[in-house]
What does this fold into?
Amino acid sequence: MKQDDVVVFKGTAKGLQLVLNDKIHYTLLLKRLRDKLKETAGFFRGAKVIVHPGNRELQPAHYLELSDILQKEYGLILLRWMAKGEQEAVKEQVDTVVPASPAEISRDREPLIVTRTLRSGQQITHDGSILLLGDVNHGASVMAGGDIIVLGVCRGAVHAGIHGNAKAWVAAHRLQPTQLRIANVIACAPDGAKPPVCPEIARMRAGEVVIEPANLR
Amino acid sequence: MSEVIVVTSGKGGVGKTTTTANIGTGLALADKKVVLVDADIGLRNLDVVMGLENRIVYDLIDVTEGNCRLKQALIRDKRYDKLFLLPAAQTRDKNAVSPEQMRQLCEELQQDFDFVIIDCPAGIEQGFKNAIAGADRAIIVTTPEVSAVRDADRIIGLLEAAEMHNPKLVVNRIRPQMVKKGDMMDIDDMIDILAIDLLGVVPEDEHIVVSTNRGEPAICNEQSRASQAYRNIVRRILGENVPLMSLELEVGLVDRLKKFFGL
Ligand SMILES: Nc1ncnc2c1ncn2[C@@H]1O[C@H](COP(=O)(O)OP(=O)(O)OP(=O)(O)O)[C@@H](O)[C@H]1O
Ligand SMILES: [Mg+2]
It folds into this structure.
């Protein structure tokens, strides 16, 4: 089994979800969880998470131990444990990697608010919209089912409407991404482009990505 | 109060070893007891830059593997009584030591020294993880090049993930003339992207090359511009509030202040 499959973070309509593999030995699971969090700890610090333990029978002590690792050691906020009945429903949703048709994406999904700068090599994916208070540096990427707002300088790669919603948009205080995607349309920064001087918004118009000043009109 | 500082960069060849040697020597000049740890296992350089190559008997791996005691592997500097070097092993690789062993080693060194300065290898793999394992603080070295700054940004993200916050930036090899002409990134641009505190700016300086080859850190030579820059950096590490020197002001920081005060 690939190490990556054991502990998986997923951004879903219901928020950040942590899926724990229920086949491997419990002590190994703990190790993999710590490894994963160590790699990404700063990233998920402060994030609210729903934990999905699969079909594993967890003892009360296990619940405590897992919650201590998440909350005390790595500063996540554990919202709740997922119940058995719920698992199926959400599982389906998590597995829908195939882009849903735009109509299926409701615009009122909980937005994700991120209050940090994304540095090179860091990535955020979320089914709803993303509001990021900070910069998106070169080599970082932000992917949202909905819209993306960056209250800072957006230099990395951004993809709004990852499930195919062509009405999704990207706005930034300074919008200068290396690459910008809306639904399936890719726009690259033109070589030698001048840095923007005002907040801008990128939208799809007649099948093309158009960037214009973000007026509050 | 003892501190463990790792000098790191991501990109290779930007001046980590040079910075380690000069900061370490400067701290010893300020009467601190200092040990420099070469964590670049398999590609050791620090011993050469310090001119101590021929005195190596034991190395870091000998210590972690228990072939000798820590004290036996420490080499005292030729010039300064309070300065020591723990050399890297040249015949081994980065996997010969673990982060846990490095943590223990740093803890042990902290008992005896005011400053433990770790020279980190380039890259983000095992060698990097080892080098940062026992450190409390980090100094990020970059040159005014886009690729070096991008790598520095990646490193800062990885340090954050390892719960090491507020690293300080040293910009090395800056050429004021080029910055003025707009041919080189200025400090402002770099700080805008990296959003961390500036510890100092070191100019491009031939003395560095000469002193590296001689095995005598440039900070010893008061004639050199780089020496002055390193002296300032050392004073800032020691908590002094040293204003930026004229060179540092030439390269784009004036603009920054202007923006700040809305002039
Ligand atoms: N300010 C400077 N002016 C001129 N030359 C410099 C300066 N700083 C470093 N150099 C030269 O650049 C080269 C690389 O420096 P150094 O070995 O310190 O980099 P490093 O980051 O430790 O490299 P590595 O990643 O290989 O460990 C050396 O030859 C050094 O003499
Ligand atoms: Mg080096």
